[in-house]
Amino acid sequence: MDEVRLKDELMARLANELDRPALQVIDGALSAVLRNYEVEKRETGLSTDVISFPELEIFIGKMRFDNYSSSTINQYQRFLTDLLIYVGKPVQDITGEDVVECLNYYEQVRQISASTKDHKRRIASSFFAFLHDRGYIRKNPMATVDPIKYVAEVREALSPREMEKMRIACGENIRDNAVLELFLATGCRVSEVVNMRLENLDLQAGYVKVIGKGQKERIVFFSDRALEYLEQYLGDRRAGAVILSSRAPHQGLKKNALENIIRRIAIRAGISKRVFPHLLRHTFATRALNKGMPLPTLSDLMGHSSVETTRIYAKNGAGKMKYEYDMYAAG
Length: 331
Description:
Layout lengths: L1 H13 L5 H15 L19 H12 L4 H18 L8 H15 L3 H20 L26 H11 L3 H13 L3 H5 L6 E2 L4 E5 L5 E5 L2 H11 L20 H15 L7 H14 L4 H8 L4 H4 L7 H11 L3
Antiparallel strand pairs: 1-2, 2-3
Helix pairs in contact: 1-2, 1-3, 3-4, 4-6, 5-6, 7-11, 8-10, 8-12
Main location: cytoplasm
GO cellular component, one term: cytoplasm
Family: Belongs to the 'phage' integrase family.
């Protein structure tokens, strides 16, 4: 047990300093070497100082090793820190009742929805499952914490008319047009557009290489409309981020800035519902399925690790049923 903890603590310390290939080499070397040793910790017990949260540091270090995005890691770290501070106990003493009490308090203070509350429960569940699997705690407190029931919101893709309204609302702003068409044509995540580089873009062939979740590389393609606006927007630029700030020093746009561009276009278009980059990704997938694209192909284009993840877009929402009605029954 102490050998495992020693390796985990070392890897957690190094996760911020070294890249993944180096961490993999060290991880393998430590596993091989420590197999021949019996390690005993000087102090018995686990977290006696709940302020330092060493188990959380180990868990976050493992997330970095597994290539979780920085935004996901930050989200997990913030909530789990809040949880551990609220409960105020060493991790091995935390009960399911403690977690439920914290979730209820979090809901009351932050006015979060039931779906968000359940998401926080899943974060806690992944943390305590990790500790239990690695032997840091004897019992997993989440075993007695039930999922939070909520009615899943039906997220309807943009209709063709709404898409056209957004295109008209872009007017002659080349960057707005390029950003909108980039999302609609590729179905990319906002993080993938943030990290999109000109060095990976081939306008002649009409595609760009992006890095998705888990640092997985894939190719996404451009429509003719997207290509036209990209060519106008990029001009002679051949290196750096694809979408830049309009203000000096013209650095690559971050997630919030891209979200704000899409939100402002939708407001100018007079669209009442909330429009954001992931809704454009949803729209891309829905349109592709409506036109008959096979699920495995769409799954590859969207960077899903499983076709089952893509299958959510195949559900018969009102928009899809109307599309199929018009195709097969109307007239």
